[in-house]
Amino acid sequence: MAEEEQRGICVRDVTAPSFIEAYAEHLKNSDKFELPVWSDTVKTGVFKELAPYGDDWYYIRAASIARRVYLNPGVGVGQLQRWYGGNYRRGCRTEHFRKANKGIIRSVLLQLENMKVTEKLENGGRRISRVGQQDLDRIAGSVFREGEED
């Protein structure tokens, strides 16, 4: 038991849905992270028919992007577009892959950068800053402890 307590819990140690839910709640309660005025009307990609239904979808996407940058340092907007993209279903014609909305990803990354969670790399892309890594690991540790109690 003493060996487990010495080892720190990071984002890789918890399941993605539980971490994203907890970090989205943290962002929602934070006064530094603001919801854009266009968030209720914008679609997340060309391949979608409607805008997201949930009120918290922007915070959930931001938490997911933060986790993705944590796991893949050096990831850029284009790579995140491919990650969140999907098939554009065109009726009876064949499906084609389409990238996700670039503006949403860029606005989330800018807000995370202003919060000092991410930082730009010299050769392009983003990575989690030291402060951001401590923040994400602290939330992952609380999620891990909640999972152990249940």
UniProtKB/TrEMBL annotation:
One of its GO terms (molecular function) is RNA binding. One of its GO terms (cellular component) is cytosolic small ribosomal subunit. Belongs to the eukaryotic ribosomal protein eS19 family. This is Small ribosomal subunit protein eS19. Pfam families: Ribosomal_S19e. PANTHER family: 40S RIBOSOMAL PROTEIN S19. GO terms for biological process: ribosomal small subunit assembly; translation. It comes from the Eukaryota. InterPro entries: Ribosomal_eS19, WH-like_DNA-bd_sf, WH_DNA-bd_sf. It comes from Thalassionema nitzschioides. SUPFAM superfamilies: Winged helix' DNA-binding domain. Keywords: Ribonucleoprotein, Ribosomal protein.
